[in-house]
């Protein structure tokens, strides 16, 4: 089969996703150094991470609406440029307040990217959307493969600022490739009134879509757990398991290696047997991972827990395919943007909650709470999956009888 332009777009979009994720992924492994250099608490760092991810989430809905008005490619170029600039400012910020402002700017710039890119890819792969979106999302997971280890290596050799500067340079290179390899395309709603489209009534109306609330609530729990991992897993491994920063970064990378490998497979599983089954399986694995990490103190158990977290965090393609299918093409980007804003915004609380609990109690309580929330999510997701599967079977039987 000849190489198609769609594959080029998919690969460059995955690379861009990798680059913009790397600018935020680089922060987690450096948290122990930030705590020391800026003399701040885990609560403060956790709150700042929550703020960055909350702004990242809040930009999803307007990014989708703006993309429908001016074109997806334009928004993606602006998003990558803003991310590059914010990351560069983060690397040179001389004080913690300025560092915090740069983090918030980074969240805002990066938040413009993902929803628009998801629609950009989905429009070109109608027959195997879940698999294509899994490949796109795996670009972000691949960032977890090398960013934590490389960040610690650069910080050991130079400083943590050089680690962040390297991620900014990487975005710049990918931005140039994206501009060169993609072409402008007409917007799907060139005459839309942005003021009216961005009015709160519209996203609230989208959230009232029948059958949306329950899966959205389930995905919020998954996003909360994801945030707890990306914000504090290296710090947890250093402080709770007493590992070195290098080994903690390696295990952190392992989580994202497994996620990158599993994500297309989970997307394909969702295409074949239903996204509900794929999401429920991921929640089960996440719950097992957190439970193992806080209840067992043997190295084989640690590796098993890391493995469960890695595969469990590969739910992205199935989630995106599930929600994308709820909207028609003209409303797909803004609709998915609204949904992703909600679950990423609420999930961003995972940073400040886990950091605060670790400061006031210990890591067992902090990550134990995440395991408990995931257990609730598993029960709800299981019931939802069984119920929707039974309804689908009845509809199939009815059509067959007719």
Automatic annotation (TrEMBL):
It is a multi-pass membrane protein. One of its GO terms (cellular component) is plasma membrane. The chain crosses the membrane at residues 40-62, 74-93, 99-121, 133-154, 160-181, 211-234, 246-266, 278-296, 302-325, 337-358, 364-386. Its main location: membrane. It comes from the Archaea. Residues 9-389 form the Major facilitator superfamily (MFS) profile domain. Pfam families: MFS_1 (PF07690). It is found in: Cell membrane. Keywords: Cell membrane, Membrane, Transmembrane, Transmembrane helix. InterPro entries: MFS, MFS_dom, MFS_Efflux_Transporters, MFS_trans_sf. This is MFS transporter. It comes from Halohasta litorea.
């Amino acid at each position: 089969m000849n190489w198609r332009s769609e594959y080029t777009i998919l690969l460059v979009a995955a690379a861009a996703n990798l680059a913009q994720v790397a600018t935020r992924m680089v922060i987690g492994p450096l948290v122990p150094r930030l705590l020391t250099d800026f003399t701040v608490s885990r609560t403060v760092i956790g709150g700042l991470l929550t703020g960055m991810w909350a702004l990242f989430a809040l930009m999803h809905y307007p990014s989708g609406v703006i993309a429908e008005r001016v074109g997806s490619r334009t928004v993606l170029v602006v998003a990558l440029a803003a991310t590059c600039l914010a990351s560069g400012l983060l690397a040179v910020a001389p004080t913690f307040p300025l560092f915090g402002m740069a983090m918030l700017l980074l969240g805002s710039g990066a938040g413009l990217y993902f929803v628009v890119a998801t629609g950009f890819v989905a429009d070109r792969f109608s027959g195997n959307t879940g698999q294509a979106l899994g490949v796109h999302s795996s670009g972000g997971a691949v960032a977890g493969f090398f960013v934590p280890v490389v960040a610690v290596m650069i910080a050991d050799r130079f400083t943590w600022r050089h680690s962040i500067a390297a991620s900014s340079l990487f975005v710049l290179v990918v931005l140039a490739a994206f501009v060169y390899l993609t072409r402008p395309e007409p917007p799907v709603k060139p005459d839309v009134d942005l003021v009216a489209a961005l009015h709160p009534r519209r996203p609230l109306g989208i959230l009232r879509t029948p059958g949306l609330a329950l899966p959205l609530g389930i995905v919020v729990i998954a996003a909360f757990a994801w945030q707890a991992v990306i914000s504090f897993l290296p710090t947890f491994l250093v402080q709770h398991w007493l590992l070195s920063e290098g080994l903690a970064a390696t295990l952190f990378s392992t989580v994202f290696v497994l996620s990158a490998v599993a994500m297309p497979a989970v997307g394909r599983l969702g295409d074949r047997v239903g996204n509900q089954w794929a999401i429920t399986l991921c929640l089960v694995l996440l719950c097992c991972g957190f439970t193992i990490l806080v209840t067992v103190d043997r190295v084989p158990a640690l590796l098993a827990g890391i493995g469960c977290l890695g595969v469990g965090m590969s739910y992205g393609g199935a989630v995106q395919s599930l929600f994308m299918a709820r909207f028609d093409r003209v409303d797909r980007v803004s609709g998915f943007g609204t949904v992703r804003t909600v679950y990423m915004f609420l999930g961003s609380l995972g940073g400040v909650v886990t950091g605060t609990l670790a400061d006031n109690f210990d890591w067992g309580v902090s990550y134990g709470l995440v395991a408990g929330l995931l257990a609730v999510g598993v029960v709800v997701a299981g019931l939802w999956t069984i119920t929707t599967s039974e309804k689908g079977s009845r509809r199939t039987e009815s059509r067959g009888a007719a």
